[in-house]
Specification:
Oligomer: heterodimer
Largest sheet of chain B: 8 strands, mixed
CATH superfamily of the largest domain in chain B: NAD(P)-binding Rossmann-like Domain
Radius of gyration of chain B: 24 Å
CATH topology of the largest domain in chain A: Rossmann fold
Number of helices of chain A: 17
Strand content of chain B: 5-15%
Helix content of chain B: 40-55%
Radius of gyration of chain A: 24 Å
Structural class of chain B: alpha/beta
Strand content of chain A: 5-15%
Chain lengths: 443, 434
Amino acid sequence: MKRICMIGVGYVGLVTGACLADLGNKVVCVNRDEKKAANLRKGILPIYEPGLEEIVHRNKEAGRLFFTTSYDEGVKDAEFVFISVGTPSGLEGEADLQHVHDAAVEIAKRLDHPLIIVNKSTVPIGTGDWVADIVRENMPDPSIPFWVVSNPEFLREGSGVYDFMNPDRIVLGSLSREAAERVAELYYPLQAETIITDLRTAEMIKYASNCFLATKISFINEIAAICESLGADVKEVARGMGTDKRIGPHFLGAGIGWGGSCFPKDVKALIHMATTHGTRPQLLRAVMEINYDQRKRIINHLRDILGSYRGKVVGLLGLAFKPNTDDMRDAPSITLARLLVAEGAQVKAYDPVAMETARRAMQDVPVTYCNDPYEVAKDADALILVTEWNEFKQLDMQRIKSLMRQPVLMDGRNIYDPPRMRELGFIYRGVGRGHNGGLIRNR
Amino acid sequence: MKKICVIGAGYVGLTTGTCFADLGNLVTIVDIDERKVENLRQGVLPIYEPGLEEIVRRNAQSGRLRFTTSYAEGVRDAEFVFIAVGTPSGAEGEADLRYVRQAAEAIAEVMDHPIVIVNKSTVPIGTGDWVADIVNKHKKNDVPFAVVSNPEFLREGSAVYDFMNPDRVVLGSLNREAAEQVAQLYLSLRAPIVITDLRTAEMIKYASNAFLANRISFINEIASICEALGADVKEVAVGMGYDKRIGPSFLDAGIGFGGSCFPKDVKALAHMAAIHGCHPQLLRAVLEINRDQRRRLVQKLRDILGSLDEQVIGVLGLAFKPNTDDMREAPAVEIIHLLQNEGAIIRAYDPVAMRNAKAMLDGVTFCENAYEAAQGADALVICTEWNEFKHLDLKWIKEAMRRPIIVDGRNIYDPETMRQLGFLYRGVGRGYGV
């Protein structure tokens, strides 16, 4: 049992803190928001994450997991302090480090015993050194030793708990190998590959990994566009590529692109870092541009079919940026709704869990929220499948079709079988399905 | 045992034909180059590929593998005719299909029984349909045929292994039965078989190679950022590679990809995309980064040496990658040209590619070994990560050099060890800038 303090109860902090408690440690989670802390003490979570509520509840009951607004209480006995506060995108795409700075200062002020400070937040390369400087400047007694370790998180929303417990690898970066090894011990029960390296390299591993996954998706989306022109089917192309061991089958789903709180932020931040240090990250820029073009391409496709959006009713199936989350940050649905409304369409929408967060994220967009997919389909001129929730995969498509004013189905995630949809009488368009999507011009 | 004809005794045709013979089939390889065929009959191969010579000899002796210049002889009894001719890059990056057309016409003219025509060459999307049109137009006898696309995924240096242990076999055809007949040929390899339509199969080949090239350009872009920010790209790649969704392959930063496939295929795909109204910006970035990597190495040398004029540069490795003598699009060629343009004097060594390199490079002193290349050099450049360079006697090398400078274009050395040995050492993306 180690004594751990977790600064920040956002998505990463809460999952990490609760899971570390579940491994038998004593974890005190600190955050500044009174209401959040009070809610958490009552077992009310600020986010939706499958399985997390139960773990929070269990460890709270067992006396291993605490929530407080007081840094004093958190740092007092801790051997490890994890910083997992938000690092939003600044105006230029740079990561905004205000919260990291504040956390470092507050920790430093209370540093009266040796401490390992672990950075979980995704922070620009060099932040570990910067945090050490801040602590050094603000600590009352400079003779007390402390160490900074970078330990980037690789949790996916929707499977955060599983990912914590079954990591592909643990990355630890520090100037002190001993400190890194002590953090490694916390993860020892997970039996994962552990990479110990320097601070900057650890920080880069996080950015490079996320940027690579984003690149994979933009790559297959670029291929999808070419498939549409040349009459190939990107879904089968991805299957053929994915069996190559050097490529792998993951993140090769063509569609309307990525969103969420990680990929857009991390790609932008790495572009920003690269540019401000004199390199020209052209590949990352292409990745970014392709991603945001995907949203516009589907609007363009649908306009070609409908003629004009004026007075048309368009239904959105799915709003969250991906399935199994209520996260609406940088969700493609927001862009789609805005563009549709701007062109005079009436927008209806349904999402299994993200309706509340969607209402907040799209306060300025007039969207009619429906109770189920069939209500969305009613009198619609077109449906756009935006998020590949499982419940959309087995809809009663005959009923959907009979409810619609025009049977136009834009499948932004390629979840339906094109010949089957055409048999049912839909005007169906997937993404990059040149052959099966009926887009072949020269065949 | 099936009767197979393979058109083209180049790298792909020879490997494919020979391996099919080794699986027990009767294979005739047709090539219009008389000398090549004559040599092959004597067991002299036009290319170097580990293990291939032995399999050619074994199967030629057992009578399962024959070589001829005559299409009539090759196609006569064949059930399958594989087209494996070259598709060089044209002036605009488009694939030049002249040899495919010649093969299709020649097959059509001698075809007198039903055959399955299998396209092995990497050809633009839509070529399968085009080949069918050509055969229809030129056939002398009204016999049925089918066209199947069956892209090759052989790597030079391990082509025989790759043929025998494929990750997957891709077959595309409008005629499912024909695709399944071709699948039978591969059944004994126990690989997953993807059967799809012609255009999709053709695209799988381009997209796969383009993605692998993308991996290399991605890590090279990250390497540049690492240099600027003080991280070590080699460890970044290790950290990334453990992510199951990423995987460890093709994440080696360096002076970029070369050879006869990646540059050609990425250019061809970008070309196809562009002429069909797409804007392949990612593919273009992949190509441009790859070119830049070579220039960056020259720039590094210039930064260290001040000027390159009259400087003696030893170049270790010339082939585009280890275990091949292939010099096509090898980074070393471009690097040597750039260095020579700035007045550098080049001493070069490669374990097997010297003969091919001599035909492509003027004014280079070719050396007997790595130590001779280092003799009197102001800097050494590693262009190909041959194993024999990994355990050189670096103390000896340092003594032999005029200045102990190594620019390692393949990150084969440990920066710390090199510094301890007294070298001024620069890798690619290894954070020395900070």
